[in-house]
Amino acid sequence: MAFTYDLSTSIGKVRLNLGDKTNGAGPLPDASNFSDEELTQVLTQEDNDVMRAVAACCEILANAWSAIASSGVGPRREESSHVSEMYRKRAMDLRAQYGGAALTGSALLLRDDGYAQAQAGDLQVGASLSEYYRARQHVRYGW
Which of 8, 25, 49, 82 is the most exposed place for a label (fewest CB within 10 A)? Predict the structure, then answer.
């Protein structure tokens, strides 16, 4: 699989925003890079929008890092869940700013009972994922 880093291309711009600039020192848990073919696929899924593709890659990275077990030797402990959460938060922020649907494999379920966090009327049927996150932030933080 190919690896190129050319800032005049959309693939290069996605790599720049991901920090995936050096072949063999990528952001995936095994230090591998996204291939050009994978980034082309993500760009296609995101209508060739670079920042939406970056958000999708952050979602992929969050899922990849969440599958890695945390480890510790003596007082030193490495928590891969922190890396996963960092990518998940960045993806949510980018989705809120640039739009698009999340590429996660799980379904988004909105509760409609006494325990729901979002107020009735915060979301309409067919609301986008970014609208959902904004509504949750509004309820949680009073924005």
Answer: 8
Per-residue pLDDT band at 130 (split at 50, 70, 90): low
Q: Quick check: is 89 in a domain?
A: yes
Domain hosting 114: range is 109-143
Q: What distances in angstroms separate CA 16 from CA 4, 92, 126, one per listed residue?
A: 11, 19, 33
Residue 4 domain-assigned (yes or no): no
Nearby residues of 76 by Cβ (< 8 Å), 6 or more positions away: none
Confidence (pTM): 0.67
Q: Which residue has the higher pLDDT, 86 or 76?
A: 86
Contacts of 2 (CB under 8 A, 6+ apart): 35, 36, 37
